[in-house]
Amino acid sequence: CALALCDDDLHVRAVPLWDEVLATIATPADDPQREYLWLTGALGYARFCIETGKVDEASPWLRRAEARAQARGWEFATARAQLERAAVSWLAGDQQGTEALVTAAYPEIARQARAHEVSRCWLYFGLTRLAAGALQAADECWGHAERHWRELGKPLHVHRILLQRSWIAIFRGRYDEARALIDQARTCLDSSPRSSWLQYARLDDQLGTVWRAEGLADLGFDAAGDPADTWAQAEARYRGGLGTWSAEPGTDQYRSGMDKLAAAADLKLPAALAVDSVRYSITDADARSRWAAGVAAPLLAGAFAVAWEAQDPALVGELIEYHSARGAFSVDAATGATMEWARATTTAAPVLEVDELASVASGPVAVGAAGLIRLGPLPPLQMEPDGAPVLARYRALAQTRYGRAVTADQEAWSTCP
């Protein structure tokens, strides 16, 4: 039951079940049946930890599980442990280790015809191939993963692999194809009773990424794909980009690029603000930190990036002001090992009830952490005495799209000296 809940992204509801599992397997396993029960519980709990961002807690369980499975000669349990270790290796940035572990695990998993685990193997095969610049091989791997998840009738997994595959279309300069994949992913969310506003926010952020990429292509971004390229040409362009653009201000090409970057901002900023607003409704400091690093930070980074690329200093200033009001603005480089294009399928799931948190985020203000942190939404922020509140339009879009009020109904704070 706990594993089934995790498959439906219901990690919060699985927590009490995992507590029962851990209590059950705490007693010594003195026969093969209890040893098998221990392995099933240990591997399932390790996967739960990986999916919720508690990788350090997962690793000891995996080492013990693999050793005990090998000692019993249980090949499928050994393969499952190797697959989970591959997930840990990927999150640590060890691409070679990921490839080696998935390669070792796949034959037995395929022999047992466990479609969900087979799909996960193909997912990681695709991730390692894209990391090496092999676009075609990655797309083929993810095509296999999508097929198996569709056969299993798992709309949430299908929606994630579709978002993942949209990156291949982006890198090939096939932006309409990427948007079509995202539309399919939206249909999957619409068909699932388990979908949440957070998944829609991440989907809109990815749609904004497509518009951002197309805008940069119009600006002459050297790594932008050409839809007429062969796979080999697309892979060479992907590997060789320097990150420069060539469009001159005032040209039609430049104006087109800026219009598309503005469209990207209209998607990415409301999603980022809605997701970030939840962070300060979380009273537990560790959970708040995990949400900030694993959920909010990637979307906020994209919001800052598109504002900067759109050469909109006023918008960049408003974003900085918004985060400075929390004391959370930082120019330090991110330390995560996960690449942006891998987040669609490898981002940690929060062990929090996101709908309840969002209600708190739009509710009354509280104070936590010994009075040092204001919990709840910020009031409107006003940089200039006669100016409009910062990010007002984007905050309104966040409420319209996701039903999340990210502004407290209070007098505006003046942030000018």
Annotation keywords:
417 residues; mainly alpha; two-stranded parallel sheet
| Poorly predicted segments | 358-372
C-alpha-based Rg, rounded: 23 Å
Mean pLDDT: 87
- Globally, the shape reads globular
How do the SSEs run, as a string of H and E? HHHHHHHHHHHHHHHHHEEEHE
Number of strands: 4
Determine the number of helices (DSSP H or I, runs of at least 4 residues). 18
Placed side by side, the strands forming the largest sheet appear as 1-2
Structural class: mainly alpha
Main β sheet profile: 2 strands, antiparallel
Secondary structure topology:
Elements: H1 2-7, H2 11-25, H3 32-51, H4 55-72, H5 75-91, H6 95-111, H7 115-131, H8 135-152, H9 155-171, H10 175-191, H11 197-218, H12 231-240, H13 252-279, H14 285-309, H15 313-324, H16 343-346, H17 354-361, E1 366-368, E2 373-375, E3 381-382, H18 392-402, E4 413-414
Parallel strand pairs: 3-4
Antiparallel strand pairs: 1-2
